[in-house]
Recover the amino acids of this structure.
């Protein structure tokens, strides 16, 4: 057990949907902290309770919880910055949360450059660990006539969610590619776009919001995973695709280049429909290219997660509670 014999009561605040990337990250962190011997609970808000540590995901949405805890007493606060915090820029509430935080967590080192310089000294990089879930470990048969490409993420502008569907329109008529799109419509403009795409594009099907296990099964049973975001905080779904051994195509951004590498052959410029379409067809028509994507992603992720510059929750607890480890 970490920290000698002391068991810490840790509260993780993860606002919003139960099926978003932040909550999946919170569940993973809760598992890691529990494995260290501590009592961990996940909630959507601070309830004025006595805990030893508050971990708040999303500096903007958890600002109220961070402020309440900060004013409550001497409870240390760790703020984890998500993609919506960092990109395009930190909001006043996010900056206020960082000011009150004892330590800051980011998922990848490139995020540090987006922090004010005076906050960088208390920032620690903790990459998302490889997910371990039965739905990702199962041996899924990717068979049949269709070549299934999954898009997993809620529909909002920063995700550029219809890009893969648009790219599929440029494929040769003989292509067997079908796009399966899972996620909630968070911005109303996309309701009409989804309806139009389903009516006009026989390759495209919107599945709506899925439970976490359903989404993981979709990723694991697909031939290819496509991510088209302008920016990502830590690339939760990319981690899940890699764990499922599903080849990945991704737009070039801080998270995708951190997880997959700057020279990963499955990267394309954000918003580039033609390049994405060409990559989709290459994946379908050249099995060895998909194998190369998997090999590159696996090798880079292994090095990325094991980098000596990365921190861990064990390190953070020892830093915050030094007297408990003696």
């Amino acid at each position: 057990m970490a920290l000698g014999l002391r068991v810490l009561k840790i509260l993780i605040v993860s606002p919003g949907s139960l099926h978003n990337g932040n909550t999946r990250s919170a569940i993973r962190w809760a598992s890691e902290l529990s494995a260290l011997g501590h009592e961990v609970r996940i909630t959507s808000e601070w309830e004025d309770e006595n805990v030893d540590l508050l971990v708040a995901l999303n500096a903007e949405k958890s600002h109220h919880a961070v402020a309440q805890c900060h004013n409550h007493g001497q409870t240390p606060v760790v703020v984890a910055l998500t993609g919506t915090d960092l990109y395009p820029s930190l909001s006043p509430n996010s900056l206020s949360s960082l000011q009150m935080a004892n330590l800051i967590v980011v998922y990848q080192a490139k995020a540090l450059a987006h922090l004010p310089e005076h906050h960088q000294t208390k920032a620690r990089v903790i990459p998302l660990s490889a997910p371990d879930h039965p739905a990702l470990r199962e041996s899924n048969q990717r068979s049949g006539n269709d070549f299934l490409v999954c898009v997993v993420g809620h529909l909002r502008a920063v995700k550029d969610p219809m890009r893969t569907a648009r790219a599929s329109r440029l494929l040769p008529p003989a292509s067997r590619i079908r796009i399966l799109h899972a996620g909630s419509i968070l911005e109303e403009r996309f309701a009409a776009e989804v309806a139009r795409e389903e009516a006009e594009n026989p390759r495209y099907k919107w599945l709506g919001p899925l439970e976490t296990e359903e989404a993981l099964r979709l990723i694991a049973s697909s031939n290819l995973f496509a991510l088209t975001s302008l920016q990502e905080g830590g690339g939760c779904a990319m981690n899940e695709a890699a764990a499922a051994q599903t080849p990945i195509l991704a737009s070039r951004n801080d998270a995708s280049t951190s997880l997959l590498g700057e020279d990963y052959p499955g990267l394309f410029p954000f918003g580039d429909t033609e390049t994405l379409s060409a990559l989709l067809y290459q994946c379908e028509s050249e099995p060895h290219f998909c194998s190369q994507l998997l090999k590159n992603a696996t090798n880079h992720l292994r090095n990325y997660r094991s980098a000596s510059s990365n921190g861990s929750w064990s390190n953070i607890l020892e830093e915050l509670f030094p007297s408990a480890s003696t």
